[in-house]
Write a structure and sequence with these properties.
The chain has 340 residues and is an alpha/beta fold. The chain has two domains: 7-124 and 230-319, 3-Layer(aba) Sandwich (D-Maltodextrin-Binding Protein, domain 2); 125-224, Periplasmic binding protein-like II (D-Maltodextrin-Binding Protein, domain 2, 3-Layer(aba) Sandwich), CATH 3.40.190. 38% of the residues lie in helices and 17% in strands. It contains 13 helices and eleven strands. It has helices at 7-10, 53-60, 63-67, 82-91, 101-109, 154-167, 188-194, 206-212, 240-245, 247-266, 268-283, 289-297, 307-319; strands at 41-46, 73-78, 96-99, 114-123, 125-129, 145-148, 179-182, 199-203, 217-220, 232-239, 299-300. The strands form two sheets. The chain has a six-stranded mixed beta sheet with strand order 2-1-3-10-4-11, with helices on both faces. Strand 6 (145-148), helix 6 and strand 7 (179-182) form a beta-alpha-beta unit. The protein is globular. The two termini are 37 Å apart. 55% of the residues are buried. Its main location: membrane.
């Protein structure tokens, strides 16, 4: 079984989102491309969660390998959080892959030479409360403790933007009324039960798992969360330098990603099985068919990227003081590979 690169440090098999390597990176592919004899090796990264099913399908079906030139070895790494993923892209540790839009935008406005070349999915963020939290409405969150995968991650911004814009409630990060802590989504159920947190901004499939096992309740479902149905929950990112140096490789990767996304929409039951098996393989956590089905209902798998939504989301990050300067995302998205 492939393991996360950070397991040796964390000593845990719990999956995290934001979210979102392997010392035994899996190589796959028989190489059905056009350049025979190539010995190139590339690495694709993604997170083992439902928003990243395109990565799982592409790996399981060897879609990247089939699009790339003959002889190309394709490895895969699974990341603990978006920051680690973006660092891997910037340093050339990976050639590209799927990550939340928050880390991609944050690194871009900080000067990272990266591009979003496709989306992966939309939706999948759910606001939940512990059964014994005494919370029945978002208004009750004043003075309460909430958890997100990481400070400033996609799910964190969605939650805090909703709370500020609709209820005028902010976190202690900006001298507000809610206490904010971070942690792995797979631990949220136990933290609810232990009374360590009152609420959580939860990515799928963990929201459906908590709900199915009765360990928490849905406070705000995906459509009502800020940017819940319009913001890409996952985007395909690569480095601008690699895109300029080897556009054919990026075209091959985007083609494979599009193929995987089409497969998900055309073969949902098979894609669900792949996701269920892959998450268990990577994380040692088995999700029931009920949980997978529920999570699937909250997600739309699409490669289309709406640049204006990304800019609006980035503006929210600035308004919440996650970003020091007002962001300009001009040049971040390159949709040319989707249009060929």
């Amino acid at each position: 079984m492939k393991k996360f690169v950070y397991l040796a440090v964390l000593g845990s098999l719990l999956m995290v989102l934001s979210a979102c390597g392997s010392s035994e990176s899996g190589a796959s592919g028989n190489g059905e491309g056009s350049s025979e004899g190539s010995s190139d090796e590339i690495t694709i990264g993604y997170f083992p969660n439902i928003n990243h099913v395109a990565g799982m399908v592409a790996e399981e079906q060897e879609m990247y390998s089939k699009q790339l030139p003959d002889g190309t070895t394709v490895n895969y790494q699974y990341f603990p959080d978006g920051s680690a993923f973006m660092t891997a892209v910037e340093t050339g540790e990976i050639e590209g892959g799927i990550v939340g839009p928050g880390p991609a935008m944050n690194h871009y406005v900080s000067g990272a030479k990266i591009n979003i070349v496709a989306a992966g999915s939309k939706g999948g963020t759910v606001i939940m409360a512990g059964n014994d939290s005494g919370i029945s409405s978002p208004k009750d969150l004043k003075g309460k403790t909430f958890i997100s995968p990481r400070v400033g991650c996609t799910h964190d911004v969605q939650f805090e933007a909703m709370m500020k814009d609709e209820f005028g409630i902010t976190s202690d990060r900006v001298q507000g009324e809610m206490k904010h802590v971070t942690g792995k989504p797979a631990t949220y159920a136990s933290m609810f039960k232990a009374g360590k947190v009152d609420a959580a901004t939860v990515p799928e499939p963990w929201a459906s798992k908590i709900e199915a096992e009765g360990n928490g309740k849905v406070l705000v479902d995906t459509p009502e969360v800020a940017y819940g149905e319009t913001l890409p929950a996952a985007v395909f990112v690569t480095s601008k330098d690699l895109k300029e140096e080897n556009p054919e490789m990026i075209q091959n990767l985007v083609d494979a990603h599009q193929q995987a996304t089409d497969f998900i929409n055309e073969n949902p039951e098979e894609a669900k099985t792949i996701a269920q098996d892959k998450i268990k393989e990577i994380t040692d956590q088995e999700l029931s068919a009920e949980v997978i089905d529920s999570a699937w209902e909250r997600i739309d798998f699409s490669t289309d990227v709406d640049e204006s939504v990304l800019q609006d989301f980035a503006n929210s990050s600035y308004d919440l003081e996650f970003l020091k300067e007002k962001p300009d995302l001009t040049g971040l998205v390159d949709k040319s590979f989707l249009e060929k």
